[in-house]
C-alpha cells in the first residue's frame, strides 16, 4: 500500500532563512573570537596560560554536550529546543561582551557552548524534517552545507573588522541581533511536523558517560597541544576517554531508551559520513590555524586583510555546494560527490604546502584556497543530507547532533594534533640550521624560515588526513542516488522501519 506523503509546508523556504541564520551564528562563533583574542587578552589581563581557555571552554561544552542536546531536541521538540538555544546563546554572548575579568569571559564561553550544543542539532534536524521532497532537500542542504563550511571564514572576516575598527567585545555582541531575528522568524514560520518527538525517558547513565567521555577526549587533545603527547595528564585523559566511551557503547546496547541508539551510527552510510566529516574537520581547522598565523605573523596582514584573504574560499565553497553539489546530487550517488570533493580540497591544500616567506597571495595562496573551497562545498552538501538519511523521525535530533559532534571533535583533534606536529617541526628545523644563525639578522631569518617550515609540515599532514576522508567516503558511503529506486540507502531506511523514517531521498 503506497505511503501517504504529507503536503510540504508552504513556509518552508522562509523557515530555511532563519534556520540557516542560526547555524551561521554557531559556526562563525567558533572562529570569530580567534582573531579578537589578543585584544581581549590585553584588555582583561588574561595570562598566557589561561588564554587557550577562551577557545577550549567553548569547545569542551559544545563538543561534550552535543549528543545530550540532540536528545533534548527529540524530547522537547525541535522548534522549542531551537528557540531556547537561540535565546540562551544570545544571553551568553551578552555576558561575554560585558565581561570585566577572565572568569566572567570563560564562563560566558562555556555557556555559549552549552546552548550551542542544544541549538546546532535542533537546527539540522528541523531542516531534515522540513524538507522531504528530494530536489528541494538537495537545494536546502546545499545552502545549509555552504553556511556550515563557510561560516568559519566569515568569522575570521568579522573578527578582523570588529577588532580593527570597533572593539573585541563586538565579536560577542554581534550574536544578539542575529539571535533576535532568528527567534522572531522561527516563532512565525518554523513548523515542526507532528509525531516526530521521542517521549522516552532520558538515558541518564548515557548522558553522563557520553558527556564525560567526549569532554575527556577533547580536553586530552587540548592538553597534548600544551603539555605534550606523553605527559601523564594527557595520557590519563585519553585512557579515561576510551574507558568512558566504551562503557557508553555497552550501556547504549542494553538500555531501553538509549541516548544514542546504536542504529543511528551502525548504518554504513551515516557512519561513513560521520567519520569523513570528522577527518575533513581536522584538515579544515589545520588550514585556518596555519594560514591565519602565516598571513598575520609572516606576511604582516592586518586583521581585516587576514579575514578578506579567506573570502574567495568561502565564495568557492558556496559555489561548490549550491551549484555543483546540489545539482549533481539528484543525478549521482553521494560518494561520487564526497570522494572527489574531499580529494579536490586535499589538492588545494597540497598547493599550500609550497608557501615560503615571500609567497605572493594571488599566485601562491589563492589557487589553493579556491580548490579547497570548491572541493569542501561539493562534499559537504551531500554529507549533511546523508547524515540524516533514512533515520527514524524520533532520532533526527541525535543523528543531527552526531554531525556536529564529529565536526567539533575533529576540529579539536586537528588543532592539537597539527599544532603539536608544527611545534616539533620548528624545533627540528632550528637544530638542523643552527650553523646559519651567524648574526642577529641571520638568526631572525632562520627563525622565520623555521616558522614557515612548521606551517608547511602541518598542512602536509592535513593533506593526508583530507585524502583519508575522501577514501572513507568512497569505501563506506554506498547509498544510491536520490530517487534512484531501491538502492543501498533505500534498503537501509526500509530495514530501520520505513513507516517511521523521514522521507528524505525517495518517494
H/E topology pattern? HHHHHHHHHHHHHHHHHHH
As residue ranges, the low-confidence spans are 483-507
E-strand count: 0
**End-to-end Cα distance:** 13 Å
- What Rg, in angstroms, do the CA atoms define? 22 Å
Biggest beta-sheet profile: none
* Helix content bin: over 70%
Mean pLDDT: 78
What percent of residues are in strands?
under 5%
Counted by DSSP, the helix tally is: 19
- SS-based structural class? mainly alpha
* Shape verdict: globular
Subcellular location: Cell membrane
Keywords: Antibiotic resistance, Cell membrane, Membrane, Transmembrane, Transmembrane helix, Transport
Membrane topology: Multi-pass membrane protein
Domain Major facilitator superfamily (MFS) profile: 15-482
Amino acid at each position: 500500500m503506497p505511503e501517504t506523503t504529507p503536503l510540504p509546508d508552504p513556509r518552508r523556504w522562509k523557515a530555511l532563512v532563519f534556520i540557516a541564520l542560526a547555524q551561521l551564528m554557531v559556526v562563525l562563533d567558533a572562529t570569530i573570537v580567534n582573531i579578537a583574542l589578543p585584544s581581549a587578552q590585553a584588555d582583561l589581563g588574561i595570562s598566557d596560560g589561561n588564554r587557550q581557555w577562551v577557545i577550549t571552554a567553548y569547545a569542551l561544552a559544545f563538543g561534550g554536550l552535543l549528543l545530550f542536546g540532540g536528545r533534548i531536541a527529540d524530547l522537547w521538540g525541535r522548534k522549542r529546543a531551537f528557540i531556547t538555544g537561540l535565546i540562551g546563546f544570545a544571553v551568553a554572548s551578552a555576558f561575554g561582551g560585558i565581561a570585566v575579568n577572565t572568569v566572567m569571559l570563560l564562563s560566558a564561553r562555556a555557556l555559549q557552548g552549552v546552548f550551542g550544543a542544544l541549538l546546532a542539532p535542533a537546527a539540522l534536524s528541523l531542516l531534515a524534517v522540513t524538507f522531504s521532497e528530494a530536489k528541494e532537500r538537495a537545494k536546502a542542504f546545499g545552502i545549509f552545507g555552504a553556511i556550515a563550511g563557510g561560516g568559519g571564514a566569515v568569522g575570521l572576516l568579522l573578527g578582523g573588522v570588529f577588532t580593527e575598527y570597533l572593539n573585541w567585545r563586538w565579536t560577542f555582541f554581534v550574536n544578539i541581533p542575529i539571535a533576535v531575528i532568528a527567534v522572531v522568524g522561527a516563532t512565525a514560520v518554523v513548523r515542526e511536523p507532528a509525531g516526530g518527538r521521542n517521549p522516552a525517558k532520558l538515558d541518564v547513565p548515557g548522558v553522563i558517560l557520553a558527556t564525560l567521555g567526549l569532554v575527556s577526549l577533547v580536553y586530552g587533545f587540548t592538553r597534548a597541544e600544551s603539555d605534550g603527547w606523553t605527559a601523564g595528564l594527557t595520557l590519563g585523559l585519553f585512557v579515561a576517554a576510551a574507558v568512558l566511551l566504551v562503557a557508553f557503547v555497552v550501556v547504549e546496547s542494553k538500555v531501553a531508551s538509549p541516548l544514542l541508539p546504536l542504529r543511528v551510527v551502525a548504518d554504513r552510510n551515516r557512519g561513513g559520513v560521520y567519520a569523513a566529516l570528522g577527518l575533513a574537520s581536522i584538515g579544515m581547522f589545520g588550514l585556518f590555524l596555519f594560514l591565519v598565523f602565516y598571513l598575520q605573523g609572516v606576511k604582516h596582514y592586518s586583521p581585516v586583510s587576514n579575514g578578506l584573504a579567506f573570502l574567495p574560499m568561502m565564495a568557492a565553497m558556496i559555489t561548490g555546494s549550491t551549484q555543483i553539489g546540489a545539482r549533481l546530487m539528484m543525478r549521482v550517488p553521494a560518494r561520487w560527490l564526497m570522494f572527489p570533493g574531499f580529494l579536490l580540497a586535499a589538492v588545494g591544500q597540497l598547493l599550500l604546502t609550497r608557501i615560503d616567506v615571500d609567497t605572493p597571495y594571488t599566485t601562491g595562496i589563492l589557487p589553493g584556497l579556491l580548490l579547497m573551497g570548491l572541493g569542501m562545498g561539493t562534499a559537504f552538501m551531500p554529507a549533511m543530507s546523508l547524515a540524516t538519511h533514512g533515520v527514524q523521525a524520533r532520532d533526527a535530533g541525535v543523528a543531527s547532533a552526531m554531525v556536529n559532534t564529529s565536526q567539533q571533535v575533529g576540529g579539536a583533534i586537528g588543532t592539537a594534533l597539527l599544532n603539536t606536529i608544527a611545534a616539533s617541526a620548528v624545533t627540528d628545523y632550528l637544530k638542523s640550521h643552527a650553523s646559519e644563525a651567524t648574526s642577529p639578522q641571520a638568526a631572525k631569518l632562520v627563525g622565520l624560515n623555521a616558522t614557515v617550515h612548521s606551517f608547511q609540515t602541518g598542512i602536509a599532514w592535513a593533506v593526508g588526513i583530507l585524502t583519508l576522508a575522501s577514501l572513507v567516503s568512497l569505501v563506506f558511503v554506498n547509498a544510491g542516488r536520490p530517487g534512484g529506486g531501491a538502492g543501498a540507502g533505500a534498503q537501509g531506511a526500509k530495514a530501520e522501519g520505513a513507516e517511521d523514517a523521514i522521507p528524505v531521498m525517495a518517494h
